[in-house]
Amino acid sequence: MKAIFVKHLDSMWNNAERILIFLFLATFPFNLRKVFLTPYSYPKGEFNEYMTLSLNWSDVLILSLIIIYIIKYLFSQYMQPKKDLLYKYNNYDDLSIIKAPIQNVSRLIRSFSFSTWNKKPFLFLFLFLLWLAISMIWASYWPLAFYRLFIILFMVIFVVIISNLIKKNYIQAEIIYLGLIVGGIFQSLIGISQFILNRSLGLRILGESIVGPCLPGAAKIIVSGVKHIRAYGTFPHPNILAGFLIIPIVLLILMISKRFKLSKSNDNIVSHETILARIPTWFAITVLIIIIGCFFITFSRSAFLSLFLVGASFLLINLASLRRKIWLIIAIIIFVTLFHGLIYASRHSGIFFFSTQSLEERIQYQNVSRETIAMHPFAGVGLGQFVSQEIVSRPYWPSWQYQPVHNIYLLIASETGIVGLMFFLLFLLTYLNNYCNINYLLKSLTSNAFCILILSFLTISFFDHYFWDIKMGMIIFSVPFILQIASYQKKRKVAE
Predict the structure, then answer these.
(1) What confidence score (pLDDT) does residue 190 get?
(2) Is the pLDDT of residue 488 over 60?
(3) Cα–Cα–Cα angle for 170, 175, 176, rounded to 5 degrees
(4) End-to-end CA distance of the chain, in Å?
(5) CA–CA gap between residue 352 and residue 341 (Å, rounded)
(6) Residue 167 has pLDDT above 60, yes or no
């Protein structure tokens, strides 16, 4: 009995990173957190999300992964009989005892390799992160700026660790795909149930928001004079759920299209790009329908528009390579449905892209952003300081109105100045230039996923802010880069 327990424990330890990464991708939408209040958490007596610190379930999983990664690395350094380790060949003198930990820490830092990424994007990413750190100097409330910087660095380290694990073939792409699709199914079932019942399900243990048609602050639509909540899942807002669901939708569509292409070939060779091969195609289509159904009832106009525009563009680009008529028909149906969804939304009160009230609020936020950029064009007001700037410049606003501008590019320019925005855009443009050209698109399933997703998210960024200042949104934004890394490593293995 003891031997069996030890064996299972050893197996769990050996597979700890796989388990944590799958668990993270499937459950990071759970809005479980410990809130740490700041002096600015309650402007005018009401709670403000953007001026508050928190420790989330996703933070615990990422921290666990980092700790296990470091422990395993250091343990491997001490255990493997390498003559180049200082504590092995310096006769254990005082100097070697001092140098050994330093040597191992140095090796650990070098193990966080960026070799999977092209050097130029990494350079701009480094400059962007450095500028974010410098911007804390002039931040009016530096603890919030430090917290925001810490979260961004946390996410970068997480992506780098996954990159290294994929590079060592310790994490396979299928684990990533499966985690995202499982998370998409779970969130879709919750969101559909919320919409049918027109209330939250009481899943407080998963961090579900308390919402209802008559509760103030709940995202609602009005159809024929009747209030109805939008699908939330366990996310804090339907727009974030919609942004997340784009990921499994794109993965499933590309997976199904790949299977159609493979079924047409005369040989029985399975492509190295085949993912989740054990899932029947009919089941994948069923799951896709469920997730798309939930995607629609989020009524996220920005997500609808971005997926439609980017998806239609890629459909036209790849039209010549589509040899199976049934797939062409399915693709057309999906995008026509998206288009009609936008038309339907525009014909109902409170759903128009955008409603008068929503448009007026967005214009107000943009005015604050333009004023901030005009006053601090070079350096901005500091990372995470936009809402505090609103409180100072607009003291007459009601407390619920203190929110970031609904445009990431304006938000970054406001907080980090033109310099920060320049480094951010240069990072994205060089990365896209390397991996989103037409010749590369036609070679890899996952590179298509990366390009469709990142371009969809960059389109959403013109209309929303959650990719920049909400943890779940930041995680969602990092997923395309993880998919691209997985694709790049697959391509290298095939070449070898």
Answers:
(1) 97
(2) yes
(3) 105
(4) 44
(5) 11
(6) yes
**DSSP 8-state secondary structure symbol assigned to residue 269:** P
Average pLDDT over residues 387-413: 91
Please, which residues have CB within 8 angstroms of residue 236's CB and are 6 or more apart in sequence? 31, 49, 209, 470, 472
* pLDDT average, residue stretch 190-217: 92
Cβ atoms of 387 and 141 within 8 Å: the answer is no
Q: How far is CA 181 from CA 157, 242, 245, 291, 332, in A?
A: 23, 14, 9, 9, 23
d(CA 148, CA 415): 12
Distance CA 39, CA 386 (A): 16
Among left, alpha and beta (phi > 0; psi -120 to 50; other), residue 387 is alpha
What is the per-residue DSSP string for 331-377?
A: HHHHHHHHHHHHHHHHTSTTTSTT-HHHHHHHHHHHHHHHHHHHHST
| C-alpha angle 476-185-461 in degrees, rounded to nearest 5 | 25
Q: Are 352 and 393 in contact (CB under 8 A)?
A: no
**pLDDT score at 98:** 45
What span, in angstroms and rounded, lies between the C-alpha atoms of 92 and 314?
A: 62
CB atoms within 10 A of CB 29: 25
Tokens of 142: 């530096």
294-351: per-residue pLDDT in tens? 999 999 988 988 888 777 766 666 655 555 555 555 555 555 565 555 545 544 544 4
pLDDT, averaged across the chain: 81
Residues 6 or more apart whose CB falls under 8 angstroms from that of 356 comprise none
67 with 244: CB under 8 angstroms? no
Q: Count the Cβ atoms, other than its own, within 10 Å of residue 283.
A: 11
- Cα separation, 222 vs 286, in Å, equals 29
- Number of C-beta neighbours around residue 9 at 10 A: 10
Closest CA to 217 of 203, 192, 200: 200
Rg (Cα) of the chain, in Å, rounded?
24
Q: Which residue in this structure is represented by tokens 């970031």?
A: 404
Structure tokens at 273: 């790009």
Taking only the tens place, the pLDDT of each residue in 48-95 is 999 999 999 999 999 999 999 988 888 776 665 554 444 444 444 444
Structure tokens that stand for 369 in this block: 């952003």
pLDDT at 357 over 80: no
Segments making up each domain of the chain, as ranges: 119-493
Which tops the pLDDT comparison, 419 or 102?
Answer: 419
- Position 376, amino acid: H
Q: Answer whether the bond into residue 354 is a cis peptide, omega within 30°.
A: yes
CB 382 within 8 A of CB 135: yes
